[in-house]
Amino acid sequence: MATITPFKGIVYNQAKAGSISSLVCPPYDIISPAEQQELYRKNPHNVVRLEYGLESPGDTPEDNRYTRAAALLDEWFKADVLRQSETPAIYVYEMEYPAGSATKKLRGLICLVRIEDYDSGIVKPHETTLSGPKTDRLNLLRACKASFSQIFSLFSDPQGKVSDVLAKSARRQDMEVKNSDGVTHRVWTLSDKNDIEVIVREMADKPFFIADGHHRYDTALNYRNERRKSSGAFTGNEPYNYAAMYLARMEDPGLTILPAHRALFNLTDFHPRRFEDDLNLYFNIERIDFDKKTEPKDLRTVLETMAHRADHSHVFGMRVKGEHSYYLLTLRNEADMDVLLPGKSAAYRRLDVSILHHLVIDKLLGIRMETHKLGLNIEYIKDADEADKRVHDDAAEIVFFMNPTKVNEVKEIAAAGERMPQKATYFYPKLLTGLVVHKLD
User: Fold this and answer.
1) Is the pTM of this model over 0.70?
2) Which of 77, 349, 357, 380 could be cross-linked to 421 through a Cys-Cys bond (beta carbons 3.0 to 4.6 Å apart)?
3) Which class for 297: exposed (0-12), middle (13-18), buried (19 or more C-beta within 10 A)?
4) Enclosing H/E stretch for 305
5) How far is CA 35 from CA 31, 32, 41, 57, 159, in A?
6) Residue 13 class from Cβ within 10 Å (0-12 exposed, 13-18 middle, 19+ buried)?
7) Along the chain (441 residues), what's the average pLDDT of each consecutive run of 10 residues?
8) CA angle 136-141-145, nearest 5°?
9) CA-to-CA distance for 435 and 417, rounded, in angstroms?
10) CA distance 226 to 83
């Protein structure tokens, strides 16, 4: 049974700290070093100093970016830069963004969710995690005992009972930020006890599917276990037993998943013609030759054709270094995946990312699955033009263009207790960090 609860959120006092737009930042794992420096300059109270502080050559176990974040957090409280609500609340969080010629809205809620072990079936992951980010997040949580961003999760609400409550409360927003990417973020405070009771009751029998934030959930789980072990006794109601989550409705038409394209580099003993022969054993191959003038248009044709076929085919785009051609690769027979992965569920075997990683990258190119997450040969790139540029600039031998994973596929894989290959999903838009902070102790 899922347990959610309101909490006394911490927000910026904009009268002292400045405009909220100058105080928030993107998720830490998509901030480049240059963006990190820019955020530091943007406002001396920007949350990046807490969430993703700069390292120093003189860092020690006693003085490092984690301890500095904890000291800053305490300092900002004392200076009234940050304020904690006196009343427990749920926070309605809406993101409005352009989608081609249309506009989409995704509305969800920020609340606390009781941390559950994965084998309970209450919280379901769908992607594998890496040890490095988990160590980093655990060090920050230990030092600050606070979370500055939320785990993005999904729940099913086909009749819209929860979304009806959220819509009723979404009147005049408490905060609004229009980001440089065109996404407008709005937050409302929902403190009405009756409305909160309805939401808590509706959520009680629902599993939550982690969309974005697997490392943060694993970190919260590890921290909970660590605190339980050190205390020796616990009731289950201690603050460290809860994590801050953003919960969005799985059926919301504003929910978007973008593809993450794959650029492969440092390939040893790679021969394009031999690779094409190997691909031909499993895929129907279509070639689109281009020249300098038609190159951009032909890439659009590839991407549009992939999107058009996505509902009835497993299709990939491809470009190889040194060639003036794009390729469309369509899997000929799904039974090949049944033979290759007999121990996996049918849902896993039918995923485009499974086909690409297991059949093409592992079997045909010889890059073992266990090395994919190390990033020694593969770069994951959201923008197709940027991915294409890797081959154009000779920075990669091959680029594979992907269709996005579907929401129902995320649900099926998570429900089966399996994990997708690395970077199978890119949920969009990304939550901003620093709008609402949760302090554990």
Assistant:
1) yes
2) 357
3) exposed
4) helix 295-309
5) 6, 5, 10, 20, 41
6) middle
7) 92 96 93 95 97 93 95 97 96 94 94 95 83 86 96 93 88 87 94 94 92 91 95 91 96 93 92 95 97 94 97 97 96 97 95 96 88 76 95 95 94 88 88 96 83
8) 165
9) 32
10) 28
Q: Which two tokens stand for residue 93?
A: 């969080």
Distance CA 302, CA 436 (A): 41
For the chain, domain boundaries: 4-256+428-439, 260-403
Using the structure block, give the residue that is written with the tokens 């027979």.
Answer: 333
Determine the Cα–Cα distance for residues 226 and 438; give it in Å rounded to an integer.
19
| Structural fold of domain 260-403 | 3.30.1760
Q: Is the dihedral of CA 187, 193, 198, 202 positive or negative?
A: positive
H/E segment holding residue 242 = strand 242-249
For every residue of 93-136, DSSP letters joined together read EEEEEEETTEEEEEEEEEEEEE---GGGSSEE--B---HHHHHH
Based on the number of CB atoms within 10 Å of its own CB, is 262 exposed (0-12), middle (13-18) or buried (19 or more)? Answer: buried
Place of tokens 């960090």: 433
Compute how many other C-beta atoms are within 10 angstroms of the C-beta atom of residue 77: 14
- 3-class SS of residue 318: strand
